[in-house]
Specification:
A 6-stranded parallel β-sheet has the order 2-1-3-4-5-6, sandwiched between helices. With 283 residues, the chain is α/β, with parallel strands linked by helices. α2 packs across α3. It contains 8 helices and 6 strands.
């Protein structure tokens, strides 16, 4: 029997973003938690595909990849739009592959639900879209950059369209523990929103507050990585974990590294992992 105790952590990005935002996590966590970014169409290493504004075709491209990469115990993390995807993937892996995650991490959002017409923004003109998102502190990085906006905004609109049309299947109650995380200064998500994830799991729910605004995964990385280490890194057989809170591997903390619209798309192609994009990213 192998003594490999590593866990694969699938990471799904927030609306409009590329999964490349998770690459620094791989360098920090090392091989005990194998960070595996899940790229979406129309961004990152898939710039020539169209962003997908419909949930089912999007998941049809993602779930086979995740199932294929499930070569060890696994967990899922998603922020914002990524949390919706991570939850759906976890539920469908249970239904379709009899595979239960070690833990589901959802951050920056309450339980997804269909938005009322007054809250729908995906199809608004650009200036109004950004104004409405700005009121909630949810303008993604790059959306205001003239050089990056032509790529970010179509992906953003597609992701918002999926969120606004989403209806949760009440049968999708996962059998893994869930951690719901919110930023201490995120005015778009309340503690009650995060507590709502309780109805989505038959196991325990833990609610964590992380320092920062809605985009705390970009600014409070070390808090998140410490959480992943504490939850997912397990001692090898015959060894005992030292007392106290486990930490991100030595030499990888902040001190050591100082300085250092397709919404109407019917086909919604999701391309396979690009040869230039590592399917497995680990230090």
């Amino acid at each position: 029997m192998s003594d490999d105790t590593s866990v694969r952590l699938f990471c799904l990005p927030f609306e409009g973003a590329s999964a490349g935002v998770f690459l620094p996590w791989a360098e920090a966590l090392g091989s005990s938690v194998v960070v595996t970014p899940v790229e979406l169409p129309g961004r990152g290493r898939h710039p020539r595909t169209r962003p997908c504004g419909r949930l089912e075709p999007l998941l049809a491209g993602i779930i086979p990849y995740v199932a294929r990469m499930r070569d060890r115990p696994f967990a899922l993390y998603g922020h914002g739009f990524g949390a919706l995807l991570a939850y759906e993937i976890a539920a469908r892996l249970e239904w379709e592959h009899d595979a239960v995650a070690e833990r589901l991490y959802v951050s920056g959002t309450g339980v997804p639900h269909r938005a009322g017409p007054e809250h729908a923004v995906a199809q608004l003109p650009e200036a109004e879209l950004l104004r409405r998102l700005g009121e909630r502190g949810r303008i993604p990085p790059g959306a205001l950059d003239p050089r990056r906006a032509p790529r970010v905004l179509p992906a953003l609109r597609a992701d918002l369209a999926v969120q606004e049309a989403y209806r949760r299947d009440p049968r999708h109650v996962v059998h893994c523990p869930v951690t719901a995380m919110g930023g201490s200064d995120d005015r778009s998500v309340s503690g009650a929103d995060l507590a709502g994830w309780r109805r989505c799991t038959r196991r325990s729910l833990r609610v964590d507050t992380v320092t920062g605004d809605h985009y705390f995964p970009l600014t409070a990385r070390w808090e998140l990585l410490d959480t992943f280490s504490r939850d997912l890194i397990r001692p090898r057989a015959g060894t005992r974990r030292a007392a106290g809170r486990p930490r991100v591997p030595a030499g990888s903390g902040p001190a050591a590294r100082a300085g250092g619209p397709g919404t109407g798309n019917k086909s919604c192609p999701v391309s396979p992992p690009s040869p230039s994009w590592p399917a497995e990213v680990s230090a």
